[in-house]
Amino acid sequence: MLRTIIEGLVSILWPPRSTCLTCDGPLAEPPPPLATIAETVPVCDACWAAMPFDPEARLCANCSRPIAGGTGFCAECADPPPFGRVWALGLHRGVLRTAVHHVKFRGRQALGVALGGYLAARVQEPPEVIIPIPLHPSRQRDRGYNQAERIAAGLAAQLGAPVVEGDLVRLRRTGEQTRRDRAERWRNLAGAFGVRRGRIPAWAGRDALLVDDVLTTGATAAAAAAVLWATGARSVNLAVLAVSDKPIPAARAGFAGSGYDL
């Protein structure tokens, strides 16, 4: 009886959402009120299905970003980037972009965990440790959480590797990257990360998976990965929910210095 009363009050104060976050269409089965508050992810089946890459999309074999004028590797991955291989769910547009926005700016932490679990099936090299890219402490205080950590939690639940927080730290606030061009982003992120003093990092001698929400130019991931490599990681790869939808030119065959057989 007490539970019935509580659920009735919850239904009045916080009515269960009956429409999808990303398309505003109806949800198949509205969940019970208490579950709605705590952990429900109100995304419809059609939107979940629309998030992954189009099977016919021409993507870079390393970073998963769209490639133009060829196949294989994009020009930016012809010399392997510090963050290694990238696994992503889809392009940063449409319903996936909307979902990322809800995770990053609207407090939908449970959605971040669910998306991380969905992303896990893409990861082809199981890591030994999972490292969410940290926010600056002031940014995390403002937001209340780190969206990369929520995504990492979903990955960890499926991959069976621990999430390690606190060893990798952001040394300075770098501001928003959105309006900066590629060169400005890379300059802005140089030296932005480090290792917490007095610690032997958890990734030393191990295979690490960095986690972030979106890969655009790769500046943030490269700066973080460089720290992991410099402090003993055996390998460093990257998992993100989405990659930029802007095509990158294909690498030229026989690109000088390439670490790949193009």
From TrEMBL:
Protein name in UniProt: ComF family protein
InterPro entries: ComF/GntX_DNA_util-trans, DZR_2, PRTase-like
Stored PANTHER family: DNA UTILIZATION PROTEIN YHGH
Species this protein is from: Symbiobacterium terraclitae
Cross-referenced Pfam families: DZR_2 (PF18912)
Double zinc ribbon domain mapped to chain residues: 10-78
